[in-house]
Design brief:
Blueprint (H helix, E strand, L loop, with lengths): L7 E4 L3 H12 L4 E5 L15 H4 L1 E4 L2 E6 L2 H7 L5 E5 L4 H6 L3 E4 L16 E5 L11 E3 L10 E2 L22 E3 L4 E5 L6 E2 L4 E7 L2 E6 L4 E6 L5 E2 L4 E6 L12 H18 L4
Parallel strand pairs: 1-2, 1-6, 2-5, 4-5, 6-7, 7-8
Antiparallel strand pairs: 3-4, 8-9, 10-17, 11-13, 11-16, 12-15, 13-14, 15-17
Helix pairs in contact: 1-5
């Protein structure tokens, strides 16, 4: 391990966080990632958060293992293993004493991170401002500035508009039509047609269907049986219709992961 003394905690283990975690883990940093017990990640095949449900989950050759205590996580990370710690609260920071903290939860609002939580605090996307609630904010908005490191400014605000794939934006996102419990009728990687019934949301008044808004492959679905609220993102249809994309980290996630790694190395290279 190249950087054994630089324990890094990454809060959140969704698909964007997974690009960060993978880059840092493979570059020789001892990494602990954290999640809630039932995360609502959509791209589960390329999210280490899936280990919260399955116990272990491998993404591009790197395996995350679910643990329930800081002590277990602290024993695994220096040995080159990747623990996923189920501990969502701020109290975990004091228990883990990381030297580097990356907040990758993508709340898309002011996350109330603090500069004193670690020697280096990095924040992903909207809600983070370099020099205020993190040492550097990482730009996550698609476009010319994706992956930029902002030491003295804020990341772009959330637009609420998904990135385009083959010209499709909001059409490719599946959202809960009502509040209740989601049960899918299709699986990740399935080809679906526009208008097809993909699942149902069970409410106190009955079931409400979830329909495909375009033709393509199911690239993302929240975990079956998850409690959802009306308008919540619960899936993703990829119009490129290639199931191979389900199992590889996206170019956006890798760009953000590279930016985090660069920010850490720039910081480490500063004269003391």
């Amino acid at each position: 391990m190249l950087f054994p003394d630089w324990l890094t905690v990454v809060r959140g283990a969704g698909d964007l966080a997974t690009g960060v975690i993978s880059r840092l883990h493979q570059s020789g940093f001892p990494v602990i990632c954290t999640e809630i017990a039932r995360p609502s990640v959509v791209r589960r095949t390329v999210s280490f958060a899936q280990a919260a449900y399955s116990g272990r989950h491998t993404v591009e050759g790197v395996t995350a293992e679910r643990v329930l205590s800081p002590a277990a996580a602290l024993a695994m990370a220096p040995a080159g293993r990747l623990p996923l710690l189920i501990a969502p609260g701020d109290e975990l920071i004091a228990a883990l004493h990381p030297r580097i903290l990356v907040d990758a939860r993508m709340f898309k609002q002011d996350n109330a991170a603090r500069l004193d939580q670690a020697e280096l605090v990095l924040g992903l996307g909207p809600g983070f401002e370099g020099g205020r609630n993190c040492h550097a904010a990482i730009e996550t908005h698609r476009g010319h500035y994706l992956g930029r490191i902002w030491w003295h400014r804020a990341a772009a605000a959330d637009t609420g508009i998904p990135g385009a794939t083959l010209g499709y934006r909001s059409e490719r996102v599946l959202r809960a039509p009502a509040s209740g419990v989601f049960q899918p009728l299709v699986d990740l990687g399935d080809h679906v047609d526009q208008g097809q019934r993909l699942g149902v949301v069970t409410t106190p008044d009955g079931t409400v269907p979830v329909l495909a808004s375009l033709t393509g492959v199911i690239r993302g679905l929240v975990y079956p049986g998850l409690q959802v609220h009306r308008g919540m993102k619960i899936g993703d249809v990829d119009p490129r219709d290639d199931p191979a994309y389900l199992h590889t980290i996206s170019e956006k996630s890798l760009a953000i992961g590279g930016a985090v790694l660069t920010a850490i190395l720039v910081w480490l290279n500063q004269p003391s």
